[in-house]
Amino acid sequence: MEFPVFDSIVPLLLAGFVVFVLYYAIYIFREYERGVVFTLGRFTRVSGPGFVLLIPFVQQVVRTDLRMFVEDVPSQDVISRDNVSVKVNAVIYFRIVDPQRAIINVADFSAAVSQLSQTTLRSVLGKHELD
User: Fold this and answer.
1) Any long-range contacts for 34-43 (C-beta under 8 Å, 24+ apart)?
2) What are the Cα distances from residue 52, in Å, to 28, 40, 46, 104, 122?
3) Domain, as residue range, for 36
4) Of 67, 80, 96, 103, whose Cβ has the fewest other Cβ atoms within 10 Å?
5) 48 and 80 belong to one structural domain
6) Is the distance from CB of 54 to CB of 32 less than 8 angstroms?
């Protein structure tokens, strides 16, 4: 006794599975993007731009933008070496040079750059005499 319904369902399920796997396996990175690839949680490579093929559920990718970032530093109240109070605004321009180090070594690189710039701004202006 044959079941003709099962004969038509199996190819459909197989085709659906192939489409599902290809959807999660193919990545296309733009010219200004890079992908940090992890295989089973360990760093494998930095890939991109262009077409990248990954093994679904075994490899994951984290996209990184290499373009210039612009961040506004909040107003800083700084006291100079001669006890003059100054309010300073600043703007930071930065970009990622090494995607591997930006993703793996720093949890939130944008916040880290902002905090470092605020600290450096206060430190540098605190050393000057404004009187």
Assistant:
1) 34/63, 34/64, 34/66, 34/99, 35/61, 35/62, 35/63, 35/64, 36/61, 36/62, 36/64, 36/99, 36/100, 36/103, 36/104, 37/61, 38/62, 43/100, 43/104
2) 6, 17, 11, 20, 44
3) 4-65
4) 67
5) no
6) no
User: Are 58 and 74 in a shared domain?
Assistant: no
DSSP calls for 86-105: EEEEEEEEE--S-HHHHHHT
Structural domain tally of the chain? 2
Which structure tokens are listed for 22?
């290809």
pTM: 0.75
Q: Go through the chain and tell me how many residues it has.
A: 131
Reading the chain (131 residues) residue by residue, the pLDDT tens digits are 566 666 778 888 899 999 999 999 999 999 999 999 999 999 999 998 999 999 999 999 999 999 999 999 888 787 777 787 888 888 999 999 999 999 999 999 999 998 998 888 888 877 777 66
Tokens 């262009």 — which residue?
50
